[in-house]
Specification:
It is a single chain. By secondary structure, this protein is of the alpha/beta class. The chain has 2 domains: 220 residues, Rossmann fold, CATH 3.40.50.1100; 100 residues, Rossmann fold (3-Layer(aba) Sandwich), CATH 3.40.50.1100. Helix content is 45%, strand content 12%. The chain has 19 helices and 11 strands. Strands 1-2-10-7-8-9-11 form a 7-stranded mixed sheet, with helices on both faces. It has a 4-stranded parallel sheet with strand order 5-4-3-6, with helices on both faces. Helix 4 crosses helix 5, helix 5 packs parallel to helix 6 and helix 11 crosses helix 14.
Length: 453
C-alpha cells in the first residue's frame, strides 16, 4: 500500500459499536457532523448510534398506526450525507481499497443508483479523494441530483425512473469496460449485504431493548438493492420466530408476481430480484400503493395538527415532520399491514427503516399538490384514516413455500444470467451456507482495515 493515501474509516465492528472507538476520535467525529460534513473524520459517523451510543429510532404512536404492536422505525437521517445508504457505499469502497483493487488517483468510481446510494457514493468519494460518476435514471427528484453535484460527482443519466434501473446497470457494465473505472455495484456486490446484516441487523436487535417483550416479531423492508433487508438475516439468528417481509409498490410487483410498472416510491421497486437478496429468509412479499406513501408523507410533514386532532401528542406530531421520506413511509405502511396480518399485540415489536428524511422530497409534495386540487384539512384527515387506520391485510403473499422460493430463484436467474453470472454461482445461493460464508468475511475485513489504517 506504499504511496497510496487512503483516508481510512471504521471497521464493521466500529460502525456497529462506535463506543469502542478511541474517545477523542469519536468526539472529533461527532463535532464534525455538526460543523463540517466534508471533513473525512465523518467516516467515523457511519453508524445507527447517536452521541450517547443509542440507536436513533422512533416508536410510532398507536394513534397514528392504529395497531397495538410497537412499530419501531430506525432513523437514517443523521448518517453523514443524510441517508443510511452511505454505509454500504463506504463498505464497498473500503473493501476494494484494502483488497488493492481500487487505487486513489488511478481509478474512477461508478455508482449505479436511483438516488440515495448515488448520494452516498458521491459523498464517500469526496471524503476519500476519488473521482465519482453516479449513473441513475433521469426522472428522479431534483433534490437528489443537486446533492450529488454538491458533493462533486458527475451525473450520467439513463432514461426513465427507478423502475428502469436495469438501464443503469447496462450503462455501468458498458463504462466498466474502461479499466480505470471501478463500479460500487450495490445490486450485486456483497459489502452491501455485509454492512446491513452486521451493522443494521444488530442495531435493530439493540433498538427493541426495553420495548414490548424486547424481541422482534417482524422486520419489514422495501428492496431497492435489497441491502437493507439483509438485516433480517441477523434478526432471524437472534429471534428465529421473526418474519421478514419484502415490500414492493403495488404498481411494480416484480417479486410478488412479475409485475413491472412505473411507480412513485424512489429507491425501491427496481423491476428485479437483486443478486444480493437472500430470498431464503424472505417470508412474505407485501404490496403498498405508491400514492398512499406520498399522501401519508404530506400529512406527516404538512399537517401535524391533524395528527394531534386524532390523539397524537402535539410535540410528537411536530417532531415527526422531517423524519421520513417516501420509501420510509412505504416501510411504515408495510409494518402496519404486517402487524395486522400476523395478529400482533402490545408486547410485539415490528422493526422497519427510514432510509432518509424529508429534505429530498419537497418536489414530490409539490407534484402531489398539482395532482390533487383539494388538500384541505378534511381531506388530509380522511387520508390518515384510510391509509394508516384503514390498512387491510390484502396484498400479502406468503413466500415460505418451496414453490414460492423457486419463483424468486428463477426471477434472479432471469435478471442476472444476462450479466455474465454463471448458473452454478446462482445455484450456490440456494444454500444457507453461501450466505454464511459471505457474512463471515466481515471479520476478515475488520482485521484488514485495522492493519492498514
Amino acid at each position: 500500500m506504499t504511496g497510496r493515501k487512503i483516508p481510512f474509516g471504521p471497521t464493521y465492528d466500529e460502525m456497529l459499536h462506535p463506543e469502542t472507538m478511541d474517545a477523542a476520535l469519536r468526539g472529533k467525529a461527532l463535532r464534525a457532523l455538526k460543523e463540517n460534513e466534508l471533513d473525512p473524520v465523518n467516516l467515523f459517523n457511519i453508524t445507527w448510534k447517536d452521541g450517547n451510543n443509542q440507536v436513533r429510532k422512533i416508536v410510532l404512536p398507536p394513534e397514528l398506526t392504529g395497531v397495538d404492536a410497537n412499530i419501531v422505525v430506525m432513523l437514517g437521517k443523521e448518517f453523514p450525507s443524510g441517508s443510511h445508504k452511505v454505509g454500504p457505499a463506504y463498505a464497498t469502497l473500503i473493501e476494494g481499497c484494502v483488497d488493492g483493487e481500487i487505487i486513489p488517483g488511478e481509478h474512477t468510481i461508478l455508482g449505479p443508483s436511483t438516488g440515495n446510494f448515488g448520494i452516498g457514493v458521491s459523498y464517500i468519494c469526496n471524503l476519500m479523494g476519488y473521482k465519482a460518476v453516479v449513473i441513475m435514471p433521469d426522472n428522479m427528484s431534483k433534490e437528489r441530483y443537486e446533492r450529488i453535484r454538491k458533493y462533486g460527482a458527475e451525473l450520467d443519466l439513463t432514461p426513465g425512473t427507478e423502475s428502469d434501473v436495469i438501464l443503469t446497470l447496462q450503462r455501468t457494465y458498458e463504462l466498466k469496460k474502461d479499466p480505470k473505472n471501478r463500479p460500487l455495484a450495490q445490486f450485486e456486490l456483497f459489502p452491501n449485504y455485509r454492512f446491513h446484516r452486521h451493522v443494521t441487523g444488530n442495531s435493530a436487535i439493540e433498538a427493541v431493548r426495553g420495548i414490548g417483550n424486547g424481541r422482534i416479531a417482524a422486520f419489514c423492508s422495501a428492496p431497492g438493492s435489497a441491502g437493507t433487508i439483509a438485516a433480517g438475516d441477523a434478526i432471524k439468528a437472534a429471534f428465529p420466530e421473526c418474519k421478514i417481509a419484502a415490500l414492493e409498490p403495488y404498481e411494480c410487483s416484480t417479486l410478488a408476481n412479475g409485475g413491472r410498472g412505473q411507480h412513485r416510491i424512489e429507491g425501491i421497486g427496481d423491476k428485479m430480484c437483486t443478486l444480493i437478496h437472500n430470498v431464503l429468509t424472505t417470508d412474505f412479499v407485501t404490496l403498498i400503493y405508491d400514492d398512499d406513501c406520498v399522501k401519508a408523507l404530506k400529512v406527516i410533514h404538512d399537517a401535524p395538527h391533524i395528527l394531534a386532532k386524532l390523539g397524537v401528542a402535539p410535540e410528537v406530531a411536530e417532531g415527526m415532520r422531517e423524519l421520513f421520506g417516501v420509501s420510509g413511509i412505504c416501510n411504515i405502511l408495510g409494518a402496519i399491514k404486517m402487524a395486522k396480518y400476523l395478529k400482533l399485540g402490545p408486547d410485539d415489536n415490528v422493526v422497519t427503516i427510514a432510509t432518509d428524511s424529508f429534505d429530498r422530497y419537497n418536489s414530490v409534495l409539490e407534484d402531489l399538490d398539482r395532482r390533487y386540487l383539494e388538500t384541505a384539512d378534511f381531506v388530509l384527515e380522511r387520508w390518515v384514516r384510510d391509509i394508516f387506520h384503514g390498512s387491510g391485510e390484502d396484498h400479502v403473499f406468503d413466500f415460505r413455500r418451496k414453490d414460492r422460493k423457486e419463483q424468486l430463484f428463477q426471477q434472479k436467474e432471469q435478471d442476472w444470467l444476462p450479466f455474465g453470472y454463471s448458473q452454478a454461482y446462482l445455484d450456490a445461493m440456494r444454500s444457507p451456507q453461501f450466505w454464511e460464508d459471505e457474512y463471515q468475511k466481515v471479520h476478515e475485513y475488520n482485521e484488514k482495515i485495522k492493519a492498514m489504517r
